[in-house]
Each structure stands twice: as structure tokens, then as C-alpha cells.
Amino acid sequence: MVRKVLLASPRGFCAGVERAIETVEAALELYGAPVYVRKQIVHNIHVVRDLGERGAIFVDDESEVPRGATMVLSAHGVAPSVLQNAAAAGLRTIDGTCPLVTKVHVQARRYASEGYFVILIGHAHHDEVVGTMGEIPGSIALVQTQEDVGALSFQEGTKLAYVTQTTLSVDETADLIAALRRRFPEIRAPQREDICYATSNRQSAVKEMVGEIDLLLVIGSKNSSNSSRLVELGNASGVTSYLIDDHSEIDEAWLDGISVVGITSGASVPETLVRGVCEWFGARGVTDIAAHRCVEEDVRFRLPSELRC
User: Fold this and answer.
1) 82 and 73 Cβ atoms separated by less than 8 Å
2) Low-confidence ranges of the chain (pLDDT < 70)
3) Domains in the chain, please, with CATH?
4) Among 24, 86, 135, 259, which is least packed by CB within 10 angstroms?
5) Based on the number of CB atoms within 10 Å of its own CB, is 237 exposed (0-12), middle (13-18) or buried (19 or more)?
6) Against a cut of 0.85, is the pTM above it?
7) What's the mean pLDDT when you consider all of the chain?
């Protein structure tokens, strides 16, 4: 029987997600509905559904947006070709890209302009990776595994640098970087690591909590990279872990023989969903629901210039 629920801290919204959601909200207020959003503004179905009810229309491609309409770009960033297509269609484009993703784009362009071939550590087909690779086509290659690193081959004298997706596993990325450095000792590294503070902090919080829990529930949508990494981290630590969108996906069979449940949430998850899971346990008699520790994140990003008062 579950006797206690521990809440990881920090969890939930990061500054980039808050900025992206506020960007859509501000665009709706300033320009009125509909406001079109290219891709999911963040990878959470509840956030997307809520904004949709308020007048946001989500599209897969800028070609689906009516000429002259307002379009917001998602937090994950886009390739320059998207901006070119939008300009050609006369769209009012507002960039909701997380500044930490923008940093990776700028870094990749700088490396390429200095004659480096760039190796991107990331997950194929993820929106962020698609955007980063689109910055310097022909001068970038993606690696996802140790095998990918081993398969790399370059002409002698090729200058190499690497960047990473911002929402990766800290430990797995460190292993891949080490493999790159073994193969290419002269490879150039970013001045500061690319994995964002929120991804790193949420993984650290789970690592600190796993020794005290019997089961981990990670609240997040299936297409959320950082949420999936939290599940992988929990399982790798020996704690059975599940990814759920909300309390309705909890299977009571998971709780057989479980005394302490840990709860965390991905960086795109509103705190209301965490409260919903806590209420689910409270309705089943669990009264000991407490934060594992309290950590404040004070990072804030300004809205795009078009939307500032």
C-alpha cells in the first residue's frame, strides 16, 4: 500500500516553455484569433489543447498558414528555410524559440563559418534537431549512439566541432562526448554545455530521489524528449518508472507492493497536472504528500520584441 508520495524539485515548466506559451497568449491578445503555431508550441498535449481552445491553430508546416496571417514558431526552433518561406508568404512571424536553442543554432553557424564540420549529438527527427541541422546543411552530421561515433569518417585535416540537443540525458551525452574526444582529440567543444539548465536540474532531482522511492511517475507527453529521459533515468537507477500524461493513465496494478512513489514532471508540464496526480493519490487515502526538497529556479526570458509593451 502506498503510504507516501515524494515530489521532485525542480520539476515542470522551464523558462523557455513559459516564454513560448506566453508568446502565443500575448499574440492572441495583441492580434486576436486565430494565431497559427507551427508545430506544437511545446511538447505537451494539455498545453496544446488549452491554447487551441483559446484560438491558436496548430499546423505542421508554414505552407498551411493563410497568406498574411500571424504565425508563432515553436520553442524547438526552425531551419532558416522556414523563415524564408514565411517571408515569401507575407506571414507575420513571431519567434517562440527557446533562447537556449537559439544559442545552439548560433554556435553551429559560427563553427561552420570558421571552417568546421559540426557533429550534432541528438535524436533524429526531433523538431529541435531538424532546426539545428537546417542551419548548416552539408556541414553537419547527427550522431545518436556510440556506433554512430565509430562510423564517422573524415578526410585528414578536417576541423571538427560538436554541439548537442538541449534536452538529452546528461550521462549518455557525456559518454558520447567522451567517445568523440577519443576518436577526434582535437574536436572543438562549446564554451558551455548545450544541455539546458532545466533538463540537467530535473535529471539531478530524480537521481537524488531514487534511493528513497519504490516507483517513479513522470508526467509528460510521449513526444517530450526531456520527459522520456527522466523515465529512462529512473529505470536505469533500478526504480520502475512510467511516463503518464495525467492521472487518468495511472494503472493501480503498478502500485502493488509499493510504499513510496516519486513524482516528477517534464519541462513542458503545467503544475496543475502534478496537482491532479497528487489528488488522485489523496482520494485513495495517501495523506503524506511532500516535496523531496525545495529548489527555486530563477531563470527568466523576455518575450519576443514584437510582443513587449
Assistant:
1) yes
2) 309
3) 4-13+197-291 (3.40.1010.20), 15-97 (3.40.50.11270), 100-195 (3.40.1010.20)
4) 259
5) middle
6) yes
7) 97
